[in-house]
Automatic annotation (TrEMBL), chains A, B:
The gene is ppnP. Catalyzes the phosphorolysis of diverse nucleosides, yielding D-ribose 1-phosphate and the respective free bases. Can use uridine, adenosine, guanosine, cytidine, thymidine, inosine and xanthosine as substrates. Also catalyzes the reverse reactions. Its EC number is 2.4.2.1, 2.4.2.2. It catalyses: xanthosine + phosphate = alpha-D-ribose 1-phosphate + xanthine; cytidine + phosphate = cytosine + alpha-D-ribose 1-phosphate; inosine + phosphate = alpha-D-ribose 1-phosphate + hypoxanthine; uridine + phosphate = alpha-D-ribose 1-phosphate + uracil. The keyword DNA-binding does not apply. The keyword rRNA-binding does not apply. Belongs to the nucleoside phosphorylase PpnP family. This is Pyrimidine/purine nucleoside phosphorylase.
Amino acid sequence: MDILKSVDLVKKANIYFDGNVTSRSFVDSNGEDKSLGIMMPGEYNFGTNAAELMEILDGEVEVKLAGSDTWNTYTADTSFDVPANSSFDIKVKTITDYCCSYIK
Amino acid sequence: MDILKSVDLVKKANIYFDGNVTSRSFVDSNGEDKSLGIMMPGEYNFGTNAAELMEILDGEVEVKLAGSDTWNTYTADTSFDVPANSSFDIKVKTITDYCCSYIK
């Protein structure tokens, strides 16, 4: 079982798209801003401020980055990068568990 | 903003009722087992092993403990206790954010 040791965890949830996407923000022991979240099946668009590393812990998604015409599929234990000040479209095929790292 | 300092956070989500209830387990800095979760509107039944303290962070639920005929309403900043080795029925009226403490 993968346990993130000694993190500072924000108690209240982040709730998006009427609860179809929810997450918990935390700062890890290296001072990195991250969140753990759940996406229910559906299609969403997310904007970024900082660049993001999206790790898929479980589930299946298709992702199209802003400015691209290509949809790429990601499943458990794969990840994708999103540039800063950009956005991505995501088609969530099955309930998806993810970890997002905000890159300083 | 309420931040839980220095917790050990399990990375993978707990997913119940086809994703309508999801949570993240962690051990707080006092060694207490807890979870932060989200319940989508609907009706659910949960069993308990250890006794539980359920804190409603946001949202509205009605709860009926096993052996009781009474439904009680809980909203943000209220909580209810569930005995060990028992269960409770819950009607989730709005998307509900909660913290569950497992009492040793």
